[in-house]
Write a structure and sequence with these properties.
By secondary structure, this protein is an alpha/beta fold. It contains 22 helices and 17 strands. Strands 3-2-1-4-5-7-6-8-11 form a 9-stranded mixed sheet, sandwiched between helices. Strands 12, 15, 16 and 17 form a 4-stranded antiparallel sheet that branches. The radius of gyration is 30 Å and the shape is globular.
Length: 569
């Protein structure tokens, strides 16, 4: 049985031998990953290939769709009814241009859809033109990927490693479709480990969902984490949706070759076409795109926001950043028995938007429903295509008793190792020990230097409107009803923390400075924001003036010496 390293090394030799010079390194994955899938599928049905061809020939003219019969009688989830597989294609090198498309079209519809979304046409044509398709096929037939030799777990590990390396080679775009595995492992540990009691017992079945599933890494690593760290008795159904066709195909391929259910993965925009509408999930994990505009979907989503039963009825964020839309979408899929959400955000959802704005209303809705459990700040430079600081939000409708009415903030910004070699913007990694420490801090639920716990209302405030009279020629102007007319140019606002007495605040903080002012309480607006950095700010004293003057004097002497060297030289 070949080892993981042997398979991986073989595939990298194929890249060097067959693709180098013809394709750019970041394009290798677009070819190699589909061919790994094709070879695996060939091997899976190899023993039944002749029977498939025979049976298909017998029934194709008798029924409109032979697929159900073939799958049922042969015990397969897919088939290829063409007379070809990769080995048989080699027998006619000159016929590849005609026979290879026949081979691909011979697959059952569930596989054909995957192949079509790989968008291989131009790449295959380039291989044919440059006399490389035959040699590539020849190389792949050298390795046996039959399930009897390589089980689903090993095959998944190989596929995962290839995907990781290809994504790193394409780091200018990989952040759109690929979340670094150290981030994923931290997120899934925060979602699953605190809920371990709900995963124990025989016959337990749970659902995991990712609405931006990319190549499926969060789903498979989430399942893997539970098996490796909690229990191997629970059964998981993995569900996802993905917008990018190639990422979608990789995800479905991975599911197909590792024994998952590829029919649970759907292609399309989650926000406008929810293919899992009405479905509820116990666990939801995702990394939606950072700061991506939803302007092209604005009409559809704002129409849905008018529906009291719709996902976005509570409000929508500004069109320049749709991050919070994905969280609202996930909340709509809360299971009545309890759900846990882990989602990666940039800083914008924490504080963007004043009271009354869509963002603030969404935060208010989440916090006042006591769904926000914890936020963990990550180090900067954790992702391939951005150096910004990011955050993991844990949101749930099943808080434990000790957490009710409270929100935990964890500063993980200093929990990292420096990488020996940067991968695009990524220069930091969270190792296993640091991940364990952050998880322990989360589960201990005790304040320390990098953990703060606040009551929900701590993040809320009432924004009041402070008016002043309109004065003309020294006279206060009144309207027709005899009320003092406010001067809009002097209008001001105050933010008063929830729980504070508003009248008392106004009396102490405002009236001494503006004795003629008053509050228009009809304009009160409650807002919520989480100023994460402020809660962990540590004051650094200024350096003594003597030290600064000494440094300046030293620099002055150094510059004088340099000047003299130039003159004398």
């Amino acid at each position: 049985m070949p080892t993981y390293q042997e398979i991986s090394s073989f595939i990298w030799r194929v890249c060097d031998d067959e693709l180098r010079g013809l394709f750019k390194p970041h394009e290798y994955g677009d070819i190699i990953l589909p061919f790994v899938v094709l070879r695996r599928l060939d091997c899976i049905i190899e023993d039944k290939k002749d029977k498939i061809i025979e049976m298909y020939g017998e029934i194709k003219s008798k029924v409109d769709d032979p697929s159900p019969i073939l799958k049922r009688k042969l015990g397969l989830t897919f088939y290829n009814s063409s007379p070809f597989d990769l080995k048989r294609l080699k027998s006619d090198p000159n016929g590849l241009k005609m026979n290879f498309p026949k081979y691909l079209s011979g697959y059952s519809e569930n596989v054909r859809e995957i192949i079509e979304n790989f968008q291989l046409d131009k790449l295959i044509q380039k291989l044919i033109t440059n006399k490389k398709l035959y040699s590539l096929i020849d190389k792949f037939t050298e390795i046996d990927l039959h399930p009897k030799r390589i089980d689903n777990h090993l095959m998944g590990s190989v596929f995962e490693e290839l995907l990781r390396k290809f994504s790193e080679m394409s780091n200018e775009t990989s952040g759109e479709h690929y979340t670094p595995r150290d981030v994923v492992r931290l997120l899934v540990s925060m979602v699953f480990h605190p809920d371990k009691d709900n995963l124990m017992g025989e016959g337990i079945i749970r659902n995991i969902y990712d609405p931006c599933c990319g190549t499926g890494g969060m789903l498979t690593i989430g399942k893997e984490y539970v098996v490796d760290n909690i229990t191997n008795e629970v059964s998981f159904n993995l569900y996802g949706q993905e917008l990018n066709p190639q990422s979608y195909s990789i995800c479905k391929s991975d599911f197909l070759i590792t024994g998952e259910s590829p029919e649970n993965i759907h292609l399309g925009n989650t926000l406008t076409s929810d293919f899992l509408e009405g479905k509820k999930f116990e666990y939801m994990i995702t990394n939606p795109p950072f700061g991506v505009s939803w302007k092209s979907e604005q009409t559809y989503l704002e129409n849905e926001s008018q529906n009291p039963l719709g996902r976005f009825f509570i409000g929508t964020p500004r069109t320049s950043d749709g991050s919070l839309l994905f969280l609202q979408h996930l909340i709509s899929k809360f299971s009545p028995s309890g759900s846990r959400i882990g989602i990666v955000f940039n800083g914008s959802p924490l504080f963007t938007g004043d009271s009354g704005s869509g963002e603030s209303e969404i935060r208010k809705w989440i916090i006042e429903n006591d769904w926000l459990e914890c936020i963990i700040s990550l180090p900067d430079r954790m992702f391939f295509n951005t150096g910004i600081t990011t955050y993991i939000w844990i949101v749930t409708n099943k808080k434990s008793k000790k957490r009710r009415g409270k929100i935990q903030l964890i500063d993980g910004s200093n929990h990292f190792d420096k990488m020996r070699k940067n991968l695009g913007e990524k220069s930091k990694i969270i190792n296993e020990e640091q991940r364990t420490q952050l998880l322990k801090t989360y589960e201990d639920f005790k304040e320390n230097d990098y953990c703060k716990i606040f009551p929900n209302h701590y993040f809320g405030y009432t924004k009041i409107t402070v008016e002043q009279p309109t004065v003309e020629n020294g006279k206060v102007i009144k309207d027709k009803k005899g009320s003092v007319k406010p001067n809009s140019e002097l209008r001001d606002y105050e933010r008063i923390p929830l729980g504070d007495d508003i009248d008392e605040y106004f009396k102490i903080e405002v009236l001494p400075h503006l004795p003629n002012s008053w509050m228009d309480r009809s304009k009160d607006k409650v807002g919520y924001e989480i100023n994460f950095t402020k809660y962990f700010y540590k004051y650094t004293p200024l350096r003594p003036i003597e030290d600064i003057l000494s440094d300046l004097k030293g620099l002055e002497m150094e510059s004088d010496g340099l000047f003299n060297q130039i003159v004398e030289g």
